[in-house]
Write a structure and sequence with these properties.
The protein is mainly α and 131 residues long. The chain is built from 6 helices and 3 strands, in the order αβαβααβαα. InterPro entries: PKF_sf.
């Protein structure tokens, strides 16, 4: 399927496809797909990229900027298409997302979530902005 999408991207020359693959704790599926299809970019949470995200406490914006920079560099070369493989577990390596999930879990465990959104006041400003 990834190969078919890559062919579509090359033939039209104007689309980027983001493919989310299974893989929470280890991105073996993403790695195997990358080895077989050679995508434009693959983000592997158990690879050095995933560890860099966690170790350097990169934000969601930092990860997004990395993807954007790859797209911009390719555009400079005249390649306005590509495939980006992302394992579904990558988001769990981003420290600010971990904090948001922890805060939401705490709120859900001890509070009633109202439709007016008053529960959002219990989030820290950083988590609220990310939410």
């Amino acid at each position: 399927m990834i190969g078919n999408v890559m062919t579509d991207g090359r033939s039209t020359g104007k689309y980027y496809h983001f493919v989310r693959l299974m893989g929470r704790a280890a991105s073996h599926i993403t790695l195997e797909c990358a080895l077989q299809t050679h995508p434009t970019l693959q983000l592997l949470e158990k690879s050095s990229f995933g560890y860099i995200v966690a170790a350097k406490k990169l934000t969601l914006k930092n990860v997004t900027d990395h993807i954007v920079n790859v797209i911009l560099r390719r555009a400079d070369l005249g390649y306005n298409y590509g495939i980006i493989l992302i394992p579904e577990g990558l988001i769990n390596f981003i420290p600010e997302v971990q904090q948001l999930i922890a805060e939401l879990n705490e709120i859900l465990a001890h509070e009633v979530v109202d439709e007016d959104g008053l529960w959002k006041k219990k989030l820290t400003s950083q988590s609220l902005e990310l939410f």
